[in-house]
Design goal:
With 329 residues, the protein is mainly alpha-helical. It contains 13 helices and no strands. It has helices at 3-24, 30-34, 42-68, 76-92, 98-111, 115-146, 158-181, 183-197, 201-211, 217-245, 248-264, 276-287, 293-317. It is globular and about 50 Å long.
């Protein structure tokens, strides 16, 4: 058994173990999750789907903006189709090849750019997305902590609340600010390093693609703002789901605690972070004297998978199965 296969099997085993733990401990409330099938949920589902569509439309806009810097232009509609196809693969085949590889495949067909040039653009795309999420987390700390809008019902003092969010979000936000205002220096360092230590031409192409975004602060700042609104849309959808499953107080908790969960569960511990995100959610909400974290995020996963079925339509419309695996290598 090779190393990659062993790691995949290990991740699957961890996911199964985490789900069993959540189920046997009663932290996954299947009765509440089953309420998603109730007809009364339809208006909430429509609102959540609309917010998810808004978030992914903004993601498509950000992708289109970054591609234009590479002197390649695709329509917003085609960009959204590619994003949705990637989302479909991310959610239905977690741990397979990832939505990013799917996006590279279709973007290469559209733009004729090399896979490594596109990888540079998608790396920027991912980093800006993470920075946008960190910004929301820090904004939560400022709004809720320093204005004193949360009290003892969260289990932590104002000062401790601010410290938790700032500790999680500040390093990521600093990285984002460096990306926006000092990216020219970062890209120059990357190219210099690769020229000295890597004989691989494709690695150099990757670094050169990154350098194309240097001194484009306005572009990066616009993309960062788009990322913030993108995540805000999804977080609002999560709060609506929580309101349906629990109550308004729980929805408020989800609104301001979910950025912590998303940041803390970025590390791919399991395929698609199945089980891992639910455990992190349960732990984070419990830290603030809130319950139902695993149930909320398991329900959210179900809705996101349902939403990603739109990507299946985009995938089939684009021609179905990928026949040339070399096109993404």
């Amino acid at each position: 058994m090779n190393r990659d296969r062993f790691l995949t099997l290990l991740k699957i085993a961890v996911a199964v173990a985490l789900l069993l733990f959540l189920t046997m401990s009663g932290r996954l409330d299947f009765q509440r999750i089953s309420e998603l099938a109730d007809i009364s949920f339809i208006p909430y589902l429509i609102a959540i789907i609309a917010l998810l569509l808004t978030a992914h439309s903004l993601m498509a806009l950000r992708q289109r903006m970054l591609l234009e810097r590479l002197d390649k232009s695709i329509s917003w509609r085609r960009s959204l189709s590619i994003v949705m196809t990637g989302v479909f693969f991310n959610n239905t085949l977690p741990g397979w090849s990832g939505g990013d590889l799917i996006r590279v495949y279709y973007l290469r067909k559209e733009t004729k750019l090399s896979a490594f040039e596109l990888a540079g653009a998608l790396l920027i795309d991912r980093m800006l997305g993470l920075c946008g999420l960190a910004f929301i987390a820090i904004l939560s700390a400022i709004t809720l902590g320093f204005l004193g809008l949360i009290k003892a019902d969260f289990g932590l003092s104002v000062e401790k609340w601010a410290i938790v969010l700032l500790t999680l979000g500040f390093p990521i936000l600093v990285t984002g600010l460096i990306l926006v205002f000092r990216f020219d220096k970062v890209s120059e360092f990357a190219i210099s390093f690769l020229e000295k230590h890597t004989p691989w031409d494709n690695a150099h192409k990757f670094a050169v693609a990154l350098q194309l975004y240097s001194r484009r602060r306005r572009l990066l700042l616009k993309a960062l703002i788009i990322s913030i609104f993108m995540h805000a849309s999804a977080i609002l959808g999560l709060a609506i789901l929580t309101y349906y499953l629990f109550d308004i107080e729980s929805a408020r908790s989800a609104l301001f605690l979910s950025p912590i969960v998303f940041i803390a569960s970025v590390i791919p511990v399991t395929p698609g972070n199945i089980g891992w995100t639910e455990v992190v959610a349960e732990g984070v909400l419990a830290l603030f004297s809130q319950q139902g974290g695993a149930t909320i995020f398991a329900s959210w996963r179900i809705i996101v998978i349902l939403f990603s079925m739109g990507g299946l339509y985009c995938y089939l419309k684009a021609g179905g199965p990928i026949k040339d695996s070399k096109s993404v290598s």
